[in-house]
C-alpha cells in the first residue's frame, strides 16, 4: 500500500541481545505493508518513508524473536534493536539434565592459562596500530541548521547512509612483547580541532587487550573478563556449536552477563579443543552498563594457534548527552582502534568505517579552514592547555592567572603572556603582571623555559616571581593534583568556589614570596623522573592590608629534588607540559630539600633539611569498584621557621577536595614530623545497581577516610590524630558528587564544624 504524509527517517542497527554480535540481513518492515529494508553486513539500516499515521515497524531475523517499534510521522528515530535468540536448539547441546557442558570448558581455559596466555609467554611480534575518531550519528535535520551547514562538505556518508565527520586518525608500526606495546616507527596523524594530546584520556587505550586477565581496563573503567575466576558468578555460559578451524576442532561458547548494570560483557568465544586456548572472542557491553556516556563498546580478537594476536578491533560510541532509547538528539563521538599483525594474512584489512581513505583525506582538507572548526579548535585549546591562542606566536595565560577571587586580594586581575612553538620550538618566554584590589598592589613573574632536544624529556626553566603563594602548599602537595585542571594544589571545584567560606575562622595563608629559581625536569628511564631545583628568595607573611610591599620578610636559600617512580603508565607531553595517564600500580615520590634562612631577630643563618615520601595509587578492585589513596610521610631535621613547616591542607569552603581535610581550617596545624592519609572507595554502582529504578541513574557509592598526625614545638600542633570519615553519592546527573563528612577526633575544637555536607563537580566515565 502506498504511504503518503510527512517524511520519516528511521536509522539503527540490529544485534543479538545475548552476544552483542551484529545481525546482517534482518528484515525491517512496516507491519501490514511491503515498505521496508534489510540490515547490512554491519547490522545497520536506514529507512526513509512518508507516514500519515503512527505505524508499527517490525524487525525480525531467522532464529530470533521479532521486535516492534511504534514510529510516528515526521520522526527522525535512531533505534538499537537487541533481538532475543530462540532457545529451542540450546536444549540439544546438554548431555544430561542439570549439566552445563560450557562450564568445564571455561574451567579448562582458566587452568591452561600459563600455557596459552601470550602475556605470560612474552611473545614478540610486530603489528600496525591505527586509531580513528569521528563525530557520528549526524541526522539530516541537523544539517539544515546554520551551525552544521558549513560542515556538510566534509561529511562522509557510509553505505548505510549514516553521516560522520573525521576528527582524528593515526597509524603506526608497533612492537608487541607480552603486555608491552612500543612504537617501532614514525606515526602518521591527521587531526581536526584537537590533537592526540588533548584526546589522551580516550586514546590511552593502546590495544593488546588480554581476556585471560580477570579485569580489563578500557576508557578508565574496569570490566570483568568472561574468563575471570569469578566469571561464573557474573556470567551465564552456553555451549552453542563445535566446528573445524584449520584442521582443529573448536567449541563456540556464548556468554551473557547475569546483571547488565555491572561492567561486564555479552558475546561469544571460540576455544581450541586440543589446547583449551582462546582462538577468537567478540565482546560487547550491554547498553544498561553503569558506564557514563559509552553507549556501545565492542571488541573483537583473533588469535593464531601459537597464541599470537592476529587482529584486534575496538569500537565505541560516546554519547555526551542523555539520550532516549529511540531518538537521538545530539551527535556522538565514535572511537575505532585496530591492531593488525604484520605477519597475518589480514594485513589488508580496512577500517569498518570506510574503505576509501582518500575520501577521509579530502574531508579533512575541506573542514580545516572552516570558521566553525577554527573557533572550535581555539576553544578546545583553552580548555585543554589553559592558554588562549591569539593566532600568532604569543598566547595569553594561564587563564587562572587572569581572574581570581580570594581572601587577601578580594579580586585579582592579571595579564599573563607566553610565547609558543610558532616562535621557538624548544624555548618559551613567559611573564605576567597582576593587580589586587584589596591590597592595592601589583605582582608579577617571569620565566624562561628551555627543552633540550634528546630522546628523553629534559626541560629546565629559570624564574623570578614576586607574588602571593599559599604557605600550606609545597612541592609535594602540588603532586597530589599532578593532572589537575584546577589551580595549584586545588581541585577545580575548590578553586572555583574559593571565595565562598563555610566558617568565620578562616585564616589568611597568603605569603609574599620573592624568589629566583633554577629548575630541571629529567626522565632517566620510562619509569623514573626527577625534579631538581635551586632557589634564592625572601619570604614575608602578615596582614596584606598593612601594604603588600611593607610585609616583613626574611631571606632564604634552598637546594632540593624530587624522585618519581611509576610503572605501566602512559605520559602525554605537550608544549612544556606533561600529563600522566595513570596505571593501576602504585606511584612513589621521594623528596629532599636543604634550606638556610635568617629571621630578622637572628644575626646568623640557620639550617634545616626536609624529607618527604608519598605513595599514591588508583587501585582497581574489579567488580568491587576502585580505591584511590595517597599516603604522605615527612620530617624536618633542624629548626625551620613557621612558613617552612608542614601545614596540613584544610578546606574552608563548601566544595569537596579529595586531597584536603574537609573539616580542618586552613593553616590550623603545623608539624615537623607528619603523616597524612587520603582514601576514597568508589563502588561504581555495586549497591545502587541492585535497586530497580535507581540503577538507571548510574549513581556511585563513595566512602572516604582521612587521617592526619604530626607534632611540632609550635602551639598549633596536633596533639592527637585527626580523623574524618565521609560517605557520598557520586555521578549525580553525571557531573556532581555530594559528600556527608564527620570529624571523629579533635572534637573539642570549635573553630570548624563536626559535620558538614560538601559537593564536587566531577565528570568521569
List the helices and strands and how they pair.
Layout: E1 6-16, E2 27-30, E3 36-38, E4 44-51, E5 55-60, E6 67-71, E7 76-83, H1 102-111, H2 113-116, H3 118-121, E8 124-138, H4 140-143, H5 146-149, E9 156-157, E10 163-177, E11 180-183, E12 188-191, H6 200-203, E13 215-218, E14 221-224, H7 231-234, E15 235-245, E16 248-257, E17 266-272, E18 278-284, E19 294-303, E20 309-318, E21 332-341, H8 357-368, H9 371-385, E22 387-389, E23 394-397, E24 403-406, E25 410-419, E26 427-436, E27 441-451, E28 458-470, H10 475-479, H11 492-496, E29 510-523, E30 528-541, E31 553-565, E32 570-574, E33 577-581, E34 587-597, E35 606-620, E36 626-638, E37 646-647, E38 670-671, E39 673-682, E40 700-711, E41 722-732, E42 736-743, E43 755-761
Parallel strand pairs: 1-7
Antiparallel strand pairs: 1-4, 2-3, 2-5, 5-6, 8-10, 8-21, 9-10, 10-11, 10-12, 13-14, 15-16, 16-17, 17-18, 18-19, 19-20, 20-21, 22-23, 23-25, 24-25, 25-26, 26-27, 27-28, 28-29, 29-30, 30-31, 31-34, 32-33, 34-35, 35-36, 36-39, 37-38, 39-40, 40-41, 41-42, 42-43
Task: Describe it.
The protein is mainly β. Mean pLDDT is 83; it is low at 88-97 and 346-355.
Give the overall silhouette.
globular
Structural class: mainly beta
Radius of gyration: 30 Å
Rounded mean pLDDT is: 83
Q: Determine the strand fraction and express it as a percent band.
A: over 45%
Helix content: under 10%
Uncertain runs with pLDDT below 50, 5 residues or more? 88-97, 346-355
> Ends: how far apart?
47 Å
Largest sheet: 18 strands, antiparallel
**Count of alpha and pi helical runs:** 11
Strand segment count: 43
